[in-house]
């Protein structure tokens, strides 16, 4: 069976959930081979987690350059391994950086690219959800080793034991004129909340929340539900909440089991990022707000009384 | 400092966007077309750099005839001149072909120091063209940036992604992509709009760029859309007025749905 390369997303020696999802998708296409690009010692830390989700092989691409240069080490690593392993496909997460890695890799390999899939089958046919979920598209790569990016949360992660045989790979020397140097990093400190794109419940606040301080109302409800916090662009632009939590057309796309919108009008660009959520709840004091057109359950009222009451009810049930 | 800004005309996100039944490509006729908002920010950043360092700002766009409207808007903001790649054969190009054509078009602009693009187009949403251009042009990629500065042949920037912030730097020339946090774009002035009408726009075909019509477009794409279907829109569910028990009502609903 041909190998299917999976680029591993990891932070602080921990594998991200999306990598487990990609390994599960890779099993449909062939034999999953995880590619770990990081500082020396990284592969050892993540190997067990990769084995649990079916990685037959773990390519360890470790060096200081791997962390100090932007994007290109990942492309170099995948291109080098693809050159010797002749994989059936390469899978990368459809994150901001994943899209860049996959695009460059496809150009270098002379391969077709299909991106941001919410599903992929054993024949390499991918499903895309485009225009904020308004269209469903099926597509396939027709030339070269298919380079495929899969949206976090698209495919379910399923455990399956793999041997995770480690093989180290050296990065080719980098050309200083072509690299971008990383001189520092400030990773997101997510605290105890789940990541926005991975969460099964998201509670978002809009301009109606009114201030950065009042976002505590949104956070309290989120914490009682074990949810991630999101925000509309108007809330972000007004400085109520940081940009990385923006949901919508130009922010994150989320598709949780439950989405609760507080003080969000429901502009088309906001809906584009959340309307594929399973269940949508809206609280807005304007009965005409378009968010109600897509909400399964809506309350016309003041979020500052409705949300705390809901938080109390949830806490009560947790006992 | 000479700067190339990549601008794309896209269907307005405020209008209904569709794929055609015939070949599943973007239906560019049915929706209003606008200069993508992120590209206004790319133009703005180029103009700010020009104000600080001098040089010329050239707009490059690949798109059908009516993309001239988007180009004029960029020129009315203050860009100096434009290159418009327009050719029937480009219809249905995939992301790799688009990058290949843009790389050739950028190559017609003499002595550029920076290429500035948006981080992601609101229609295709690949978020990959700038990175692919860096690959094809053999330049560093300084992408997804919310802040940048140029000094002594080096560009320094703050990159924002899912992982957090990264402080990055590279030698010029380089390919940049900006996020929506980079700046607030200026409005074209009346004078700017009038001046834009006289600014030079060179319109190029695929052949002008030394490419063959068979190398681009739907037929040459390395991926293929097999089917595309609209999803039925969501319908409204229950809606209640809060009379002091709105929060409890939501809780009841969530219990009923087994969500709590
Ligand atoms: C190219 C482009 C891209 C965009 N991308 C995005 C994106 O990614 N994400 C995004 O969100 N937007 C995006 N937008 C912006 C979008 O058009 C809207 O402006 C934005 O979503 C509005 O945010 P909002 O609903 O919080 O604010 P508003 O539209 O101002 O709505 C606030 C709502 O709060 C309600 N309210 C006020 N006080 C209370 C209260 N006490 N209790 C209950 N309800 C209250 C009001 O009735 C109102 O409905 C984009 C726009 C463009 C043009
Ligand atoms: C719904 C949909 C799904 C698609 N899926 C795929 C797919 O899976 N695989 C595939 O290969 N193609 C796909 N395409 C085609 C692809 O989006 C187009 O080829 C597109 O021209 C390039 O991608 P983008 O606009 O998403 O670029 P992005 O990388 O998102 O654009 C970033 C920036 O690059 C610059 N730029 C991009 N295009 C142009 C242009 N024409 N002129 C000037 N500057 C430009 C702009 O500055 C822009 O802000 C899809 C298109 C659509 C509409």
UniProtKB/TrEMBL annotation, chain A:
FAD binds at residues 207, 232-233, 246-250, 263-270, 284. One of its GO terms (biological process) is fatty acid beta-oxidation using acyl-CoA dehydrogenase. SMART domains: ETF. Pfam families: ETF, ETF_alpha. CDD domains: ETF_alpha. Transmembrane segments: none annotated. SUPFAM superfamilies: Adenine nucleotide alpha hydrolases-like (SSF52402), DHS-like NAD/FAD-binding domain (SSF52467). One of its GO terms (molecular function) is flavin adenine dinucleotide binding. Residues 4-186 form the Electron transfer flavoprotein alpha/beta-subunit N-terminal domain. Keywords: Electron transport, FAD, Flavoprotein, Transport. Its cofactor is FAD. The keyword Electron transport applies. PANTHER family: ELECTRON TRANSFER FLAVOPROTEIN ALPHA, ELECTRON TRANSFER FLAVOPROTEIN SUBUNIT ALPHA, MITOCHONDRIAL. Heterodimer of an alpha and a beta subunit. The electron transfer flavoprotein serves as a specific electron acceptor for other dehydrogenases. It transfers the electrons to the main respiratory chain via ETF-ubiquinone oxidoreductase (ETF dehydrogenase). Belongs to the ETF alpha-subunit/FixB family. This is Electron transfer flavoprotein subunit alpha. It comes from Saccharothrix espanaensis (strain ATCC 51144 / DSM 44229 / JCM 9112 / NBRC 15066 / NRRL 15764).
From TrEMBL, chain B:
Keywords: Electron transport, Transport. InterPro entries: ETF_a/b_N, ETF_b, ETF_beta_N, Rossmann-like_a/b/a_fold. Coiled coil: none annotated. GO terms for molecular function: electron transfer activity. It holds the Pfam family ETF. Its cofactor is FAD. The keyword Electron transport applies. Residues 23-213 form the Electron transfer flavoprotein alpha/beta-subunit N-terminal domain. GO terms for cellular component: cytosol. SMART domains: ETF. Gene3D superfamilies: HUPs. Belongs to the ETF beta-subunit/FixA family. The electron transfer flavoprotein serves as a specific electron acceptor for other dehydrogenases. It transfers the electrons to the main respiratory chain via ETF-ubiquinone oxidoreductase (ETF dehydrogenase). Heterodimer of an alpha and a beta subunit. PANTHER family: ELECTRON TRANSFER FLAVOPROTEIN BETA-SUBUNIT, ELECTRON TRANSFER FLAVOPROTEIN SUBUNIT BETA. This is Electron transfer flavoprotein subunit beta. It comes from Saccharothrix espanaensis (strain ATCC 51144 / DSM 44229 / JCM 9112 / NBRC 15066 / NRRL 15764).
